[in-house]
Description:
Largest interface: A-B, 43 and 56 residues
Shape of chain A: globular
Number of strands of chain B: 22
Strand content of chain B: 25-35%
Low-confidence stretches of chain B: 1-9
Mean pLDDT of chain A: 90
Largest sheet of chain A: 4 strands, antiparallel
Radius of gyration of chain B: 24 Å
Structural class of chain A: alpha+beta
Mean pLDDT of chain B: 94
Low-confidence stretches of chain A: none
Largest sheet of chain B: 6 strands, mixed
Oligomer: heterodimer
Number of strands of chain A: 8
Helix content of chain B: 10-25%
Helix content of chain A: 25-40%
Distance between the termini of chain A: 63 Å
Radius of gyration of chain A: 16 Å
Amino acid sequence: MQAQQPATDDRIDILAGMALFADLSRAQLEAVAHTFEEEWFSEGQRILRQGLFGAGVYVILDGEVAVRVDGETRATLARGDVFGEVSALLGEPPVADVVALRPLRCLVLAAPEVKGFLLTYPTVMYRMLQVVARRLRHATQWRG
Amino acid sequence: MTQIPGAGSGRPQPAARPFPPGRYPVVVVGSGPGALQVAYALRRLGVEPAVLSRDEEPGGMFRHYPLFQRLISWSKAYPPGGPEGRLYYWHDWNSLIVDDPQERALLPEFMDGSSIFPSREEMARSLVAFAARTRLRVRYGVTWEGTRREAEGFTLLTSDGAYQARVLVFAIGMAQPWKAPIPGIEPVPHYVEAKPLAAYTGKRVLIIGKRNSAFELADALLPVARQLVLLSPRPPLLSLLQRSAAGVRARYAVPYEDHALGGNVFVLDAAIERVERTADGYRVHAQGTTRPGPLVLAGEEAIVATGFATPLGDLRALGVATFAQDRLPGLTPFWESTTVPGIYFAGATSQGAVGLRKHGIPSNSGGIGGFRHNARVLARHLVETHFGQRLSRPTLHPEAVVPYLLSEATRASELWNQRAYLARVVAVDRARGITDEGIQPLAWFVDAPGPDAAAIVLETDATGDHHPAVYVRRGGRVTEHVLPGDPLLTFERPDHHGQLADILRGLLA
Lengths: 144, 509
C-alpha cells in the first residue's frame, strides 16, 4: 500500500506564529509539536469540564471556543490562545467549561507533563506568565 | 503442527460467499479483530451486518504484522479467577469476547507457553478460530471502492456491486503506512518494507521514529546491526514511566537500555531537516532538540517508523473530518464521525474518540485490549439508536449498588483496559428503580444530558496510583469523587464501601 505523506507539518507553522512560542527555534517547535497531542472537537463538544480533575493545557490550532462558568459565557478564545493552564499549574479542577463553538483543532499537554515542559523551555514559561498576568489584569479591571 | 478444532477452517468456499450486493441494516468493512468483534456483538443483538473484506481470511493486520512476529500485549494462561472470572480479559488483552463459552477462542489455547506475548501466527490462528467457532459470516475477496450518501443511509460501492445500508461501520485498521513530512524521506523504506534481518548484518542503521514500531525494529536488529540510531524530535515515551500501554513497551526497552548504558544504540532527540541518499546509504541532517546543535548521521540502511494512518478511501471527500495530521477521523464518544452521522469506526481507528485523557493517560483503543470493549458498546448503541431496540436493563436493589460498583471497579476488564474511558453506569429510573445501564463511554456520561445516575471508572493519577473514580449526575450536574487506591488493587475494603455509600446518599433513596 502506498505510504501516506503530508507535504508539511502545519502544526509547526501555526506554533511559529504564536507569541507563546516566539523564542523557540524551528527544531524546538518541532519537538513541541511532537510533545503535545493533537485533538479534534466538533461544535458543542466540551474540552474542559468545570469541576472535573485531570485535564491539561490546550493550545488552539484552529477554531473557536467559549469559556463558560455555570453556563454563562465569559470569554471566547481562538487560534493561538491557550486555556487550561491555571488548573494545570495549580493541580485543581477547572473553574469553567470550555466548549467548541465550531470545529476545533488543538494541541494538548497533560497536566502531569506541564512542569517538566516549562522547565525545559523557560522562555515559554516566561511568556505563559505574561498570559496569566494579562488575565489577572483583565480580571482586576473587570472587578474594579 | 497440532490440528486445533476450528482453527484453519475459516477460509470460505467460493460457492458459499455470503452477503451478495443488496440492502442490509448495517455493513461492516473489514475482517480484523475490530470487525469480527463488532459483527459478532451486533449479531448477538439481533442485527446481522453484512461483513465485507478484501482479504481472503480473517485476521486483518495480524496476517502480516508485527514484522518481527510477537505482539506487545499479553495473554496469560493462568490468570486469577480463570476464564470464567469477570477479570479474565484484563489478563488476556488479545482475545475477542464471546457471550457463549462454547464459542471461545482464547489466546492461551493457541500459544506454545514460552511467552505471555503471543506470536503473530498464534494471534492470527486465534482470529481464524474465532470466526469459525462463532460461525461469523464474512464475504471475503471484495474491495470497497467508493461511498455515497443517500436519503436514508449510504451506498457502498464494491468490486462485487453496490450495498445499501442505514449504517456503515469501518473497521479498516490503522493500516496505511505513514511517513512524516521530511524532505528526502521518499526513498527510505517504511517499517512495512523493512528487509529480511540478514540484510542488516554488520550495517549502521538509521531508524526514523521512536515509538513502538521503531523500538520493535531496533530490538530485532540489535543482534545483527553494527550501530543503531533512533531519531525523532522528542524523547521516547516509555510505558513504564507513562503508566500507559501507548508508550514504548518494556518488551522493546532493551535497545533503550543499551543506549542508556553507552552501547552502540543511540536514541537521539532531533528534528530532521532532510535525508540525503549517498553512494553507500543515507545521510540524515538534523538539529538536536533536548541537546541543541547540528547532527549529521550516516547509515548504510535506513527505515521510516513514523507510524500508520487510517486508509479512509473517499470518506474525506464525503465529509469525514480528520485530525492528527490526517491520520484519524474525528469521532463522537460512540465512535461516529462527528461530521458524517451514520458512519462509525471500530478497531484501532476507534482511538479517534479520544475521551477525557485524565491525567494524560490515553485510551487503549489503539489495541485489541481496548477496542474489543468499544465494539461491544458500539453494537448496543447502534441497535438502540438506529434499529429501535430497547435493550434490557437489569434492576438493582438499592443495597446492592455499592457492592456492585466496587466489584466492577475491582474486576471489570472494560474498566481496567479502558481507564477513565469506559464506565459502568447505574441510573435512577422513576418507574423501575435503579437500573444497570451497562458499560458506557465516560465522555458520554459526563457531557450528555440524562437522568440521575452514577458511573464508576478506574483512573491512574500522576503518582501512578490506580483507583476508582465515581461520577455522579444529579439534576443534570456531574460531580467527580475519587476513591482510595489499594496496594493489591482491591477496592472493596470497608472504607471504600463507606465512602461510596456517602457519595451516593440521596441518589439511591
